[in-house]
Design goal:
This protein is an all-alpha fold and about 190 residues long. The protein contains nine helices and no strands.
């Protein structure tokens, strides 16, 4: 049944998704797009929608995928009630491992925060998280985000570089950059 498979997939994502939502994207893509529950294009759209809505991207994507995946899996599950059930299950299951882990270990970490072992564990996790976020960036560099023609790819790279310069060097406000990029995308594409 699709719900048990979604629960198992999001339990793995919740247990092994260190570093936040962007670090989870590669794992989410493997567990959800891999079995064919949703398409790569739909996954890219879900990531975009999850970025626009308030809240963590991992939880937002779990809620949305939980709603969409049952209907994509079988027409018998296309009712909104099946989608709501899937949303609730995926959201709870992706949050549950982190909640239990933090509740269980917070007092231990607080007590031993000056320990060489604890400091070493966190120092070792930092490069892993950076690698997972880099993996998410590479995952999103696909034709759905950058277009299929050289013209679209070059414009996408130019917009990315321009946005980086405006934020990093010129210190423009990110909301202004988003508005400019949206307008430029509307003009170009």
């Amino acid at each position: 049944m699709i719900y048990l498979r979604l629960i198992w997939a999001y339990l793995k994502i919740g247990l092994f998704g260190f570093g936040g939502g962007y670090a989870m994207l590669a794992l989410i893509e493997r567990e959800i797009v891999g079995p064919g529950w949703i398409s790569e294009q739909m996954f890219t759209d879900i990531v975009a929608i999850s970025q626009m809505t308030p809240g963590p991207i991992g939880i937002n994507s779990a809620t949305y995928i939980g709603y969409v995946a049952p209907g994509e899996y079988s027409a018998a599950f296309s009712s909104p009630l099946f989608g709501i059930l899937g949303s609730l299950l995926c959201t709870l299951v992706v949050v549950l491992p982190s909640f239990v882990l933090v509740a269980y270990t917070s007092h231990l970490i607080r007590r031993h925060k000056d320990s060489v072992v604890v400091k070493g564990i966190f120092a070792g996790l930092r490069p892993v998280v950076v690698g997972l976020i880099a993996s998410a960036a590479l995952l999103l560099m696909n034709s759905a985000n950058f277009g299929e023609t050289n013209y679209q790819v070059l414009w996408s790279i130019a917009l990315c570089v321009a946005a980086f310069v405006m934020v990093y060097k010129l210190k423009w406000h990110p909301i202004l950059i988003i508005c400019i990029a949206g307008f430029a995308g509307w003009l170009i594409y």
